[in-house]
Amino acid sequence: MNESFQADLRRIAVLGVPVEIGASQRGTIMGPAALRTAGLLNLLGSLGFDVTDHGDLSIRNMRDLADAPPENARHYREIQRWTRALTKQAYELARSGAIPIFLGGDHTLSMGSVNGLARHWREAGRELFVIWFDAHADYNTPATTLTGNMHGMSAAFLCGEPGLEGLLGGEPRAPIDSDRLELFGVRSMDQPEKGLLRARRISLADMREIDEFGVGVLIRRVIDKVKARNGVLHVSFDLDFLDPQVAPGVGTTVPGGATYREAHLVMEMLHDSRLVRSADIVELNPFLDERGRTARTAVELVGSLFGQQITDRPTPSNAIEPGE
């Protein structure tokens, strides 16, 4: 592998993406600032990382393209500008060798972040897998969506579904194969979306399956799959994956989400796997939060993803066997 593609796992590049237009409720524009205020950068630094904050992405000087917007894709033109700007930035950050963390903003940001990351890893000769922590599958297209809200089309765009071909303009598109998308924690889907997911055979661990088998077993399946193919993992974390009692500061709450303990276990196991090379933290809406509780929870979970432990005792996934 070319040296320029080697990741430096002690360097983190943070980029805020204050996009809110893809969601139905305004407020996620304040998400990056809230995560910083809650101590995200300081926490990552305390874990031994060299953290560079690249500030917030801006689309102020991005020109509009002349393609015809698809029907039933609300605010397409503005999201097109965000996606074009972010895919370039994500690609360059990945090429730098650092671990990029994108602070949202609504989940439309992943259309740009993951596309840029996938392009980098394709050039590096590695498969990028995406684990999508979300109450929603986000696998709609302009032809299937009931609302036209584009944050519900993000995962479908990543897998190359039709309808948004012009979103990137002239930027290279790097779709991932549908078997490299892992939906986790889903508990709300539109009927047309369900049909598309079945047709594409997308891997989906809904909350019924999580209740039945436990998060540890299901995350281990994902980890083993990625390791077997020498892949790398991108974590796209929508805070509505969590139960609203844990994370009230999101605009699309759905009852019955992951508990605080389940979420930390998932993050700790992903850290232990040493597969994570990038992350999105999305849909934090400080306007709806309770005294910063959701922002602090998000920071704590990112801490677990990058090595923070409550005690020095090894977790069962990396413990030494008796007699060794």
Can you offer a commentary on this structure?
With 324 residues, this protein is of the alpha/beta class. It has one domain (3-309): Ureohydrolase domain (Arginase, Chain A), CATH 3.40.800. It contains 10 helices and 8 strands. It has helices at 31-37, 40-46, 76-95, 109-123, 154-158, 191-200, 207-213, 215-228, 260-273, 293-305, and strands at residues 11-17, 50-56, 99-104, 128-133, 181-186, 203-206, 232-238, 276-282. It has an 8-stranded parallel β-sheet with strand order 2-1-3-8-7-4-5-6, sandwiched between helices. The model is unreliable at 1-5 and 319-324 (pLDDT under 50).
Please write out the topology:
Elements: E1 11-17, H1 31-37, H2 40-46, E2 50-56, H3 76-95, E3 99-104, H4 109-123, E4 128-133, H5 154-158, E5 181-186, H6 191-200, E6 203-206, H7 207-213, H8 215-228, E7 232-238, H9 260-273, E8 276-282, H10 293-305
Parallel strand pairs: 1-2, 1-3, 3-8, 4-5, 4-7, 5-6, 7-8
Helix pairs in contact: 3-4, 7-8, 8-9, 9-10
